[in-house]
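For the sake of clarity, the format in which proteins appear in this thesis is described at this point. The fold follows as a row of integers, each naming the local backbone shape at the matching residue. One such record is shown here in full, so that the layout can be seen directly:
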Amino acid sequence: MLRKVIGTIPQKATIRFWQSPHFWIIVAIFLFDTFIYYVDQSPWATSPPFTNSFFSSVHDLHRTLFLVPLVYAAFVFRVWGSLIASFFFLCVVLPRALIFSPYPDPLLRALIFVVAAAFISLLVATQFDRVEREEKARNQLNTAYRQLKESQEQLIQAEKLNSLGQLAASIAHEVNNPLSGVLIYIQLLIKNITAGKLPKEKALNYLTTVELEITRCSQLISNLRDFSRQTQPAFEPVNLNEVIEQALNLVAHSALLKHVDVVKELSPTLPEVMADLNQLQQVFINLMLNAIQAIPQGGTMTLRTLSSGAGEVRIDIKDTGIGISRENIQKLFTPFFTTKKEVKGVGLGLAVSYGIIKQHKGRIEVDSEEGKGSTFTIYLNACNNEER
């Protein structure tokens, strides 16, 4: 509520103070309070309507009225407004204390009240300054966080495109295989139709095979399109086994080219997790590509999913590659760090994967030994009944 009120007041306005309507309101209140403060000294103050009334004598309540313009000045013009208003308050009460006051020690009474009022006004000014600074810092923090989120999304997309670049050759080969099959069967159809000896059953078999190969190409291209699309994170219940299968379809030919056998140990009773499917697929593709590239020539990549207990799901991506030294394990998730001798990226893959898993409130661990291979283990929270 206080911040909303502050938002209606010009904060450290660039216009001159006398051009602000708030200044003239404060002046008007000061004049009204001054009139009340000195009205008993006027000739008509002794007339019957004013005798024994609020205006017939001055006491501390009249001085209290000056707190209104003092606090108002502190609210709008902060410390300087508070100091100037307090000075004018002193100028108003001094003549009364020195000339008209019937009380003992009038000057001391007036000074004590002015000092107390000035202190309250300064306290209000400093508190509003503090709230204003906090609000400004909060806005800057929100802006920085928003920019960080945008940078993270751009980084994720850049790494995704980098993964696509690494997959380009194998994907082209993967698409070329079914297209070659389609071409062969179409040529056979043309040859048999021309020769006039094409039984209906044989023609249907050819066309069925062509349809299957085209569907295979279409599915691969569809997977690529979905993977490369830049989307806002959308968390929903996800079947991890299906995500792993989709990721594997995109890297399968890369594994085939390096003679890497893929072993799948996917739990059929694996619970779903609340996640962004596209981002998890990116993590799995990155880890699978790393595993394949870590195997010099011929080896095994094992993909395992299981429930690890405590409401968590565990995913293992294990390879029989060259492994990682203890020294390098500590740096694996550092941006731009890479253990690859051949430059195939910019060293952001694992850092981005780590960030995605953290965003999913999970964790990623590495177990590796040089010459024996590596295992990357991901832990994610399983969906509860309410999330489903």
